[in-house]
Structures are given as C-alpha cells and as structure tokens.
Amino acid sequence: MYKKSTASIFVISLMFLIVPVILYAGSMNSGNYSIQSDSINIGGSDADSTSYASQDTMGEVSTGISSSTSYRLGAGYQQMLAVSISITSPSDPIFPNMSGITAGEGNASSTWTVVTDNPAGYTLAVKSSTNPAMKSSTYGSYFADYTPAGANPDITFSIPSTVSEFAFSPEGTHILQRYKDDGGSCNTGVLDTADACWDGFTTSDVNIASGVSSNTPAGTPTTIKYKAAVGSDKIQDAGAYSATITVTATTL
Amino acid sequence: MYLLLQKIYKNQYFLVFIVLTIIFCGYVTPTATATGDSTQVELVVVGCNNNLICESHSGEDLVSCPADCTPATPATSTPSVGSGGGGNGGSILYGSGGLFSADNFVVNTTIDSATLSWKTNIPVSSTIIWGATLDYETGVISESVISLSHQVKFTSLFSGKRYYYKIDFRDNFGRKVGQVTSFFSTNILSTPVSLVNPKIISVVSSNEKVLVKWKNPKTTDFENVRITRSTHSYPKDPLEGKIIYEGDADSIVDSEIQKGFNYYYTIFARDKKGNYSSGSIFYVNTSNAGEKPSTTISPLSKTEPQIQKLSILDFIFIQDGVRLVPVNGVFDVNGSKALTVYLPYEALPEILKTIVFDVTDPENPDQIASFLLTVNDSKTSYEATIGAFERFGSATFSVQILDYNNMLLYGTNGDLFVYGKSQESFFDGSVIKSLNQAITDVFSTSRILLFLALLICVYFIIKAFFVS
Fold first, then answer.
1. Which of A1, A33, A232, B79 has its CB surrounded by the most CB atoms within 10 Å?
2. Which of B163, B185, B207 is the last residue of a domain?
C-alpha cells in the first residue's frame, strides 16, 4: 500500500511538472514566413484556454548558452525568447570650420545601425546632453537649438539673420512619419528627401525611427544629419563648440 | 471531485504553490531591452572679421581669412593695439566739418580687465557702451570731464573672451561729433596647472586600523604619493604631520592609530621634479568610525571682513588653461579633462586657514571627494587640480574655509555639469551580450530553484491528499 501511494504521488507530481507557463504567442509569422528559432525535441504539445497558453516539450539534449564575439546561441526549447538589441558606435562627426563673422552654414552626420532579433522591433530616440546642444566651453557661447516654424520639422533649414542655430534631420528607411515628407512639407507623405525635415535637439528623448520586426543580422542604419548656421547679422564667438548627442535604441 | 478540490484548497502548501507559480511565470515575461551610444559633434568657429588685422588667436590665417592675412600695404589709419587686446575700429569720424578725429587707441588687457585709452584732436566727453555681444548689453561708462586724453577701465571680465564697445563723442556744446565701434579680447589664463591630486576611492576604518585606497594621477611625470596624518587638522603641505606612507602603491593600511582620536589625512602626489599636489583629504574618528569631521561655525562677527566678502564668483574653474563660464549658475565641465579650482591669493587674508573643496560623484551623489586648495609657489593663488571625472552628469561642489581650530569661517556651494562621451564600455555590444548572458544565467538558476520548490509543494499537497 505504501509503495502504491508513493508511486501515485510520483506520477501525479510528474503531471504537475508541466507547470503552466505564460508565454507570448507568435514565435512564427505568416505571410512572409520567418522562423525565429527552433529546437529538436521528443513530444510536447500546445494547449490553450481563453486566458492562457501553454507550450511544453520533453527530451531535449545539448541545451544551454553558447557565444562568440559575434553571436549568442541559446540552445533549447524557446531559449531565444530573450531578445537582444545592439547599436553601432560611429566616430565623432566634425564640422568644417565656420566663420563667425561671415554668414554661413556647415554640415556633418552620424550613422547608427540598430540590430535586434526582437520580433516586435525597436524604437530609436535621440537627445542632447545640454540645453542648448551646441555650446562652447570657452565662452559660454552657443548655437541655439533649431526651432521649426510650426509643429512639424521644417522641410528646408531656415533661420533669422540675427541668430545662429543647430539642427538635425534623420534619414533612413525606418524614420518616423514626423520626418517623412511629400516634397513640400514634413510629417506627411512617404518620401525621405535628403537634407529635409529639420528639427531641434532637446535634452529629452525624441523618437526618430522605429522598426516593427526583427532585422538581424544586417540591422537598419539611420543617419542623423547635423546643420549649424550663423545668420548674416550675427557674430558668433570664435572657438571650439561641441554637442554631445545620445541615441537610445529600445526593443518594443 | 469537489472533495478533492476542497482538500487541495485547504492544504497548507497550496498557497505557497500559487505564490511560487506566479513568481515563476513572472520570470518568463519578456521585458524591453535598451542600448545606446553617444557621439560628440565638434565644430570650430573661426573669426575672420575683415578688419585688416591677421588675428591668429581667433583662427585667422591666409586660407580662412585672406582679407586680413594677405600681405598688403599697411592701412594708414589702423589704430594701435595694446598687448593682449583685439582689433580696433577706424578713427576717421564724422561731424564737426570733418575736423574731429580720435586715434592712438591702446588696449591693455589682463585675464579679467581691460584698460582702453585714446586721444582726440578736440576736447570731448565720451560715452562708452560695451558688452560681450554687439548688443553692448553689459554697461555704460560716461566721462565726466571734457578732455583730449581719455581712459576707461573694464573690470570683472572673463578670461579669453571678446568684448565689444561703442564710443560716442560729444563736444563742449553737447553735440555728437563722432562714433567708434570696436572690440578687444581679454587674455587667456596661462596659470601653470598644478599637479593632479590622487583620487581617493574608499576609506574603511575601525578603532585600530584605516584602509584607504586611491587612484594615482595618470600624468607621465607622476613619481609617487606621500600620505601624512595629523590629529589637529589636515596637513597642508607634505612636511606637515606624520608621514605614514611614501611610494607608488594605491592602497595602504594604517594600523598605528588609537581609539578615541580624530585623524586627518592628506595624500599628496609628487612629480619627478619634486613638486607636490595640493592634496586629497579624508578624515577618521576612531571613536565613531566613518563619521565626517564636524566643524564648528565661527560667529560671523569674528570672521575677517575679507572672507565675508567672498563670493562663489571668486572661485575660478579652469580646464586646458581656460576659465569656465557658468551658464545659469552651472559650470559645464569636460569630464575627460583635469579641472583646476583657483582662488586668487589676494582674495583671502594671510591668516592660518584650510580651504577644503568637496565635489560629489556625478553618478553617485553620496560619494564625495575632498581636496585642499593650497597656495602656489608664487603666492598668486590657492589652487587644486582634480583628475578627469571620467563620469558624467550633474554634480555639486562646496568650498569651506576653516581656521586653525577647524572652525568654519566661510562656506559656499554650487553646481557642475560634467559632460563628455558616455562610457562606451557600458553600452557597447560586447557588454550587452554579457548582460544578456548574465540575465539568462540568473534566470536559469532562479527558475531551477523555484521549480524545485514547486515540486516540493506539489509533493506535499498530493501526499496530504493520499494520507487523508
């Protein structure tokens, strides 16, 4: 009797071993199919109710984490559910020297590539570390942050003659609608016209690009173009200026 | 079936099972992951101002400013330029039938003042408006007498900055006879930067021992450190107090202390020429290990008037030989460069005193580094040089002046913003990979433990059911 009870306890306990686990559905996509990850197992099944879904399996071998400098592998059932995201680190951009006396403008750019295996994609935000962004540590002189004429970015860069300003324009296949244009205005249309849709930096994150699916391994580049200009009636203090720009890529 | 559910429900392990299951499930809920990068956009503005003076200090050269730097026949009316000064406007003026002229403009500048003098061919009074921009926003100076020789002094200027001025001339009938617009630049501060101080990392003390760790300066001429100790006040020079260590290590244990005393330590860095830094300081009370030293506030009436007049603006922050200018009361500090704190020697009376500069860690406000400001060899300033922060964000600083009894004679504080490139090591891909690895490892380990706990719960639930 004791052996029978113990055996029953063991069997029922094994049944409880398949603990309900809340999982996010959708590890495969329809339409243009992509298999995010797979594993070789024995048995297992899916079950669901209106509130929960359970996915289980048995008999896996060679599970665990392996990695190299370029890749990380989570071998085993749904190991790759842990998403990763990375971003490149471009070299610091340098404007060509500008005259503080004669009206003029300069351009520079940085390109970041975001790579994520997150099926839901990512967002890319940008901000400056100071207000205004482009400052001189020598004199406290600065270029004011660009102010678009309206709520949307300006399709063309334009400043009054009495000021100096610093602006940015994101370009890439994943830029948000705010930075797309129809050739005449921003935040409308589907174009990504070069050197268009100029905005000013703030010290708070501003989303500039977003992806809606995994883009591993190639990733998606987004370029931020910078423009600094001195108005014809403005005398800009000579000296070295700099702006520290931070981009943050976050999985969705 | 009802009885079965009732027994399970009443079982003491059922609640534990439910809680653990919720925790377990929570572990597999994916969370958002983020990564970032920073870049520093560099821009240099050069000052070609087409004034026929080739001003290399403003970045003018033959390429950037051919109008000023191309050799040509000297302009006949170019006014004279004082040492350290900038360009000057023309002296050909209008009015008075073309008879009036002003010339011999001379500007003598220091790091924080400028004296401008000129002569006129008829007696006039001059009104000068001036400022850091062409708005001439800073002030107005009016001469009270009519004369041929004129001189004004601009004070409280910033080092290495250009100032603009406009002079209106009026004759003895009050008629405006002419006007000049021009500018000058104050001198760049060229104070020799004192030796960078060691950076104290941690101090751990008991009643009998003190363990201190520090970072030595990264400068190429660094030789070693000397640590001195006193029971009265912080040793202000390497010969004061008891020498407890000299060498190039970065940590020591001082076990020659006794319970019930205040111990003041100063760590001096020494370069290969034998020069010492101003000193990094820390304090240990062996009765109350870990407490900060207490200072008694001196009655204001007993404080020297010269000290009472001190302002935060008397303290000068310098990086790369250039004075930092506060913006809205905040000094922007480059986190990748050493920072020198400088107080002119004449700002304080020659009484025995200790000047302590405290600054918080930009990334951990609870961490405070303390340094002494000591007088330099030429007795022109009290100064301390702090190594690069290498950490970024907002920080606060305070300055305390103590007398020989450690009574607080003066105290003030202010804000810094330490900027620079974010620490790549935290954000770059390889570390992200390691973080993911660590998260996965923790997740796996925790999940196994929770799973075992769940199994034990289930075992007891089922066992209770069968036994009953």
1. B79
2. B185
Boundary (domain end) residue, out of B228, B250, B285? B285
Q: Is residue B82 predicted with pLDDT exceeding 50?
A: no
* Chain-chain contact of A137 with B319 (C-beta, under 8 angstroms): yes
Does B422 sit within 8 Å of A93, measured CB to CB?
no
Domain ranges, residue B311: 296-419
pLDDT of A1 higher than 60: no
In a domain, B48, yes or no: no
Nearest CA in chain A to B392: A129
Q: Is the pLDDT of residue A236 over 50?
A: yes
**φ, ψ dihedrals at B77, nearest 5°:** -110, 15
DSSP bridge pairs for A98 = B45
The C-alpha atoms of residue A8 and residue A235 are separated, in whole angstroms, by: 89
- Per-residue model confidence (pLDDT) at position B32: 64
Q: Measured between CB atoms, which of B37, B59, B463 is closest to A89?
A: B37
pLDDT band at A221 (very low <50, low <70, confident <90, very high): very high
Tokens coding B460: 């007891």
B229 shares its domain with B172: no
Instruction: Please state, as a whole number, how many other Cβ atoms lie within 10 Å of the Cβ of residue B192.
Output: 13
Distance CA B264, CA B277 (A): 17
B269-323 confidence digits (pLDDT tens): 999 888 899 999 998 887 764 555 555 554 544 566 667 777 776 788 888 777 7
Predicted ipTM?
0.72
CATH number where B170 lies: 2.60.40.10
Token pair, residue B84, equals 């350290």
- Residue B291, chain A, CB below 8 Å: the answer is no
Nearest to A219 by CA among A249, A243, A182: A249
- What's the CA gap between A130 and B419, in Å, rounded? 8
> Which has the closest alpha carbon to B390: B365, B419, B370?
B419
| Together in a domain, B405 and B300 | yes
Question: Would an 8 Å CB–CB cutoff place B417 in contact with chain A?
Answer: yes
Cα B420 to Cα A167: distance, rounded to the nearest angstrom: 20
Count the neighbouring beta carbons within 10 Å of the beta carbon of residue A161: 10
Burial B65-81 (b: 16+ CB within 10 A, else e): beebbeeeeeeeebbeb
Mean pLDDT, rounded, of chain B:
74
Quote the number of domains for chain B.
Answer: 3
- B143 with B82, same domain: the answer is yes
Q: Chain B: residue nearest A10 by CA?
A: B459
Q: Assess B394–A contact: CB distance below 8 Å, yes or no.
A: no
Cα distances (Å, whole numbers) of residue B251 to A96, B27, B207, B218, B348: 47, 42, 19, 16, 35
Q: Which of A244, A96, A201, A249 is nearest to B39 (CA)?
A: A244
A229 pLDDT higher than 90: yes
Residue, of B54 and B436, whose pLDDT is higher: B54
CB A98 within 8 A of CB A104: yes
